[in-house]
Amino acid sequence: MVQLRVPGPTPCPPEVLAAMGRQMVNHRGPEFHQLLTEVTEDLKKVFQTKNDVLLLTGSGTGGMEAAVTNMLSPGDKVLSVSIGVFGDRFASIAKTFGAEIVPLKVEWGKAADPEDVRRALKQNPDVKAVLVTHNETSTGVTNDLGAISRVVKEAGKLIIVDAISSLSSIDLPVDAWKCDVVITGSQKGWMVPPGMTMVSVSEEAWKAHAVAKMPRFYWDFTRAKKNYEEKKENPWTPAISIVFALNVALKMMLKEGIQNIFARHARVGRMTREGVKKLGLSLFADEKYASNTVTAVNIPEGVDGKKMRQILRDEYKVVLAGGQQTLDGKIFRIGHLGMVYEKDIEEVLAAIEAVLPRVGFKK
Ligand SMILES: *Cc1c(COP(=O)(O)O)cnc(C)c1O
């Protein structure tokens, strides 16, 4: 079996894949009404929220764009807390639609300091919303979202969270942390193929939405909410097969129990970091904030990281991710989210250990 260990898409359980093979149903018919209701209610349990959860067809980036355009107006000031590639992407989207960005950029590999967020909000009292990444997939860092959210809500601002690679794998109690908009994507910790993005919307977020003027059509939250509440439908044709898959995956997740899932990711994350260090490699991320869904590993001097990943893929069927943007050639990343157990990490570490001496590594 291939060990697909990139931070999305992630391997899917056979039951989930089988659900994808089901015959189509009418997306305006009773089977789909029942399906969408069930999936939405189950999603709320994993989001740990009583807020609305909208199922939108698209990848995670679509969900990010939806969050931006549904909450903001051109000219609105937003504080962008960025600790890596995906934080920067969030700011780019907001900028594209006319928001004024106040950047809070953190050195890659580190987490954002909630006190810096507090200071930035104090210096910019006219900021309307804060964009933040819960788990930065490009650097393998998890922000202390609970603490950041407390600061943002104390200042009375909206908090919009990219939780695409954390929600369902790392604890994110949406209501307890008062997160206004939280975005995730089916191909990450949900054990489902790519195709759907799921977004929670708080009461405060709905108020902001009511006056938000950025252009939107396909992603309009009012249309999504109205169609769901009145008809248990999506406004447009959804990726029905992905909803079949998500329904099965959610049942499996709720059976395992979300706290057990978080604990499993914590175990697997720790095991990956310890294993990597034991091989004589070092971690890219500040270990205090190291992610339990993706581990970024420094490529040592003299080691050909691309060749390493190529041999791992071709000879060991272990697929790892490289670094993005300026981290290309500097790090490699091991995804460990969704369907992942200790045995998988053992296999991955053993394969890396076998390949390292062939690509210039001297311990
Ligand atoms: C994967 C990912 C995205 C982008 O999602 P797509 O589904 O590729 O559009 C955004 N943010 C984070 C943190 C991610 O891990």
Q: Topology of this structure?
A:
Elements: E1 3-5, H1 14-20, H2 30-47, E2 52-57, H3 60-71, E3 77-82, H4 85-96, E4 100-105, H5 114-123, E5 129-133, E6 135-136, E7 141-142, H6 145-154, E8 158-162, E9 181-185, E10 196-201, H7 203-211, H8 221-231, H9 240-256, H10 258-278, E11 294-298, H11 305-316, E12 318-322, E13 331-335, H12 342-355
Parallel strand pairs: 1-12, 3-4, 3-5, 5-8, 8-9
Antiparallel strand pairs: 2-10, 6-7, 9-10, 11-13, 12-13
The structure holds pyridoxal-5'-phosphate.
Determine and state the CATH class of the largest domain: Alpha Beta
What is the CATH homology-level superfamily of the largest domain? Answer: Type I PLP-dependent aspartate aminotransferase-like (Major domain)
* First-last Cα distance: 29 Å
Q: Estimate what percentage of residues fall within beta strands.
A: 15-25%
CATH architecture of the largest domain: 3-Layer(aba) Sandwich
Largest sheet: 7 strands, mixed
Given helix and strand content, the structural type is alpha/beta
Poorly predicted regions are none
> If you compute it from the alpha carbons, what radius of gyration comes out, rounded to the nearest whole angstrom?
20 Å
Helix content: 40-55%
Report the principal-axis shape: globular
Oligomer: single chain
N-to-C order of helices and strands? EHHEHEHEHEEEHEEEHHHHEHEEH
